[in-house]
Amino acid sequence: MTREEVLMDFTSRFNEDILDFEDKSNTRVYVNIKPEAIVRIGTYLFRNVNARFNIASATDMPPNIEILYHFIVEDINLVISLRVFLNRENPEIESLGKEIEAFNWIEREMSELLGITFIGHPDPRRLLLADNWPECVYPLRQDYEEWDEKADRTRGV
Amino acid sequence: MGKTIIPIGPYHPLQEEPEFFTLTVEGETVIDIDMRMGYNHRGIEKLSERKTFENSTFVVERICGICSTSHPYAYTRAVEDIFPMEVSMRSKYIRTIIAEGERIHSHLLWLGLAGHFLGYNTVYMWAWKLREEILDVMEILSGNRNAYAMFKPGGVRRDIKPEDVPLSVKKIDSILPTLDMIKKAVLDDPVLHARLKGVGVLSYQEAIDFSALGPTSRASGVARDVRKDSPYGAYQEMEWDMIVTENGDVFDKAVVRILEMFEAAKIMKYCLNNLPDGEIDAKIKDVPPGEGIGHVEAPRGETFHYVKSDGTNRPIRHKVRAPTFMNLPTYKATVKGQTISDATIILAAIDPCYCCTERIAVKDAKGRMLYDGKDLVQLSREKTAKMKRRMGVR
Questions:
Q1: What is the pTM of this model?
Q2: Do B22 and B125 belong to one domain?
Q3: Chain A to chain B, count of Cβ pairs less than 8 Å apart?
Q4: Complex prediction ipTM
């Protein structure tokens, strides 16, 4: 399938769920979708379009938290980034990790670094942060403040 | 039969970064594996948000000591993708040369370590001796044996001098016969065949499901290489082959890496001999608001960077994904059902690096020490020795 056919099929299939579509360049497409459609669209891209999951990147942008799920369709060299906005007060989204193994670790990472809840995640433990890191302190949030009074983070900078 | 839990890590020579594996074994068979990481979590993504676009290049170069160039490469491509813009042909060639030199030394380092863990110290010595030669080439070209600091958004920081090119090409040519000898020694060795074939198999479907990358996926028959799929740099300019094998075991992972070194040398030589003239730096002033994605094929697979800019001189978000993040979870599929003497080499088959202090212990239910790290490597070597005896090989 060509780039046009893939995108045409994709947009017509999920017309209801797509809020915004940005055709940035020949190799990059950003698609803003409804959060509740993420499992439907993500598994379709992964299983049916044979897109590889690159990674997801979450950003704290008050009043929202934005997650971008990056997929690459290798045959046509196209990165499709699915964008969802979650409410910052209570960020929740359905887990893709329960369907596809590749999403498992990054969802654990996003949940501890930004405090996003992935509903139905098979293994919701911490991935990177230490065991003595306090609950509900999310280092990649904009309003993160140093919590450890003994910590010296200056390191000569 | 009772279960024994074997912790490996957090500091162990088989692991590139400190990670903590828990192997559950029944007799000699590994029945479950779990891991805990984060011991080396340095908050680079957070740190990068406080650096300028220019300075972040140096920060990301320090993420990995072996594939140090893959991160600046992916990062600069991500920044350039915000515009989007193309860099000059000459800087593309220089970037390709550095990236491929790094691939050769990284694969040689892996090959040496794999030999070491199998009790083939000859392979280890030869591979690491050869690695010195390629590091010398890198020093001639960039001034550094590692952490070359050649990249910047918009181009490269230093030019390659014309007088350095003949010596570099000569040095690359001089390692090829030795590389060929190592290739034959490893690929034709009946003991290595017996030791590595069918061990730690990652099936085609598993490679897809884990989104495995680089040699890990290519050894399982998944023809996946960013250099071919999303061409960048100078990779389109010459003929080279993507190495793909079918079996997905440790042996095939070794085959992919060994054969890839020849392709990398070919690419490097072509680029050095055909270096085009032109500017090496586009001299970017301001990065516009927007977002960019950069991905390159590092020695271990795709390195992926995402950068978001709000128009100031700093990124507001910089996401880094190293290939190991996707390759590491494949242990769940490859280690289960294997013997504990093979666990060492299966763990090493994906991504080893001799940078951490050795610390490993096997304890029984009462807390008595049964094995330490040396013993596990010893177990692996004894298995090779046993096979050699059985096959009548000295």
A1: 0.90
A2: no
A3: 75
A4: 0.94
